[in-house]
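Lab meeting notes turned into a lecture example. A postdoc, R.K., suggested we walk through two folding results consecutively so the class can see how the record format repeats. The first protein's sequence and structure tokens come next.
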Amino acid sequence: MDDNKRKLWVNGQFIEVSEEVYQVYMQGDRKMRYFETDLKTERTILAEDGTVQRIIPGREDSLDRLIDDNAGQFSDAGESVEDAVLRKLAEDELHRALEKLTDEEYWAYDSTSVSSYSESLRQVKYGKNKDGEKLLQINLALIFGENSGLPF
């Protein structure tokens, strides 16, 4: 074997390679190990008495855990286009209904939220129920006419 040749263990056998190929391979291998292990694992910093002082989460973390920890990096930066359109449509519908309202009739307004376990509905958002639990929910609001008793 030449002095400038190195051996790599690849797929169960040694392969003779140049020093340059060896260095590039080892660099790539280290990067792969970094992405596979270092990023995924969290680190715990202990105090002198052995108690957990701080936990630094891995860079790959579950969305559920981050939401439970009230992480801000996934908070909405603003209203989505779909939500803005739906809000505008609801406002327009409310204004049309207000135009039909007579002086003799009043409206009753009622709102509620319905919990959902759906992962495909875009209308569900995280909110808190009466017990303070964070759940996916859909918020509903209805306006009822005094005389008809029917929702608008």
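The second example is placed directly after the first for contrast:
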Amino acid sequence: MDGTLHDFKLGIKKTVQARVIEQGFQDQMWRSSDFFVTTNIDHGVSLFTVFSSVNKLYLAILRKGDVNLSKCDMENTLDKNYFSSVLLYLERQGVTCGDAVAPTRGAEFEQVNRVGLAEYEQVLQFGAQQTCDPLFGFHLGQQIQSADYGVLGYLVENCENLNQALMALLRYDQLVASIGQAKFQYQGDWAVLDWLPNLQTTRHVILRNMTGWIAMVRALLTQPVAPEHVSLTCSLNANEASQLAHWFGCPVVGSQPHNQIKFPRAYLSLPFRRANSAMHEALQRLSDKALVQLQQHHTLATQIRIMLAASADLGQCQLDAVAGVLNKSVRQVQRQLKQCHTSYSQLLTEERMRRAENLLGTLPLAELARELGFNEQAAFNKAFKRWFGVSPGKYHKRS
């Protein structure tokens, strides 16, 4: 028998058994015969069947005949698993699922595999109100499990170390939630992870996202760790900042221009307790396939919005450059955007407006103008007044 296949099957068995013990048979997922079947894989089973079993085991979003992504654009949506974990948390707090999904289109929820950002925000806000918890997103993030991230969660779980896990996050984050862009960079001896939402969003979305990353990493590492500093774009009062700092193990500051986690670069080589190279390779293939299918159902306008949101310098985002990245001619891009009832100029303006509103007051106006791609501050001031009806200074005072 091929050694790689044997290791792969063994990895399935060990992972299932470990997860069953962890869950204490509380989760119906682990009582299902579909999942336990993988613990009895015979040596003669084909590699295709093994991959199919893993696909089921890890809640991959590509079950045959079970997914139809063509009905809607995937921008600003979340995977159903990530959304469902909010409902499970609320049930543990005494709030029934029916009550939780009432503010959303509950009737449609069972029919789709992605949930819109607006619906997600409504459920988080509903949960915060029902539990009287101003840090609902933070407490929700503390309870994150690998399964909540779907196939990406299990891919990360089987990574060798934190560096490999971060690379998986940067590449496949859209599978979990296409509501923002994660960026990673080095600053000397420090590593910095930023998260920039596509749209202005609520504090609970931000708190859950940033807290969940740390909670999951801590669960997978073989030793306790704490960041050096955490910045959040949402506001925090002194008591809230103190609670977050106690759990994160470092200063946490709100009302910042970026959602950012800063930690020692040396952490990147720390090993994960469940590292499994064969399982990681298989899950990476599944993730690649899932990502391709997800991206195929982005409209061209959405693809460009994502590219613009991920760009550090909008001044470099000329139409011809963007068309080149998309392997299209400028005319093709213009024609297809017209079919989407928009234009490249409009998409660029939308991104500039979003950044201007989010960053106003956090940067000098001249620096903000450059980041938005304006050669002169005067041109930025004129554009800002056209967008919002007042000058940047008056807008900042008013807000």
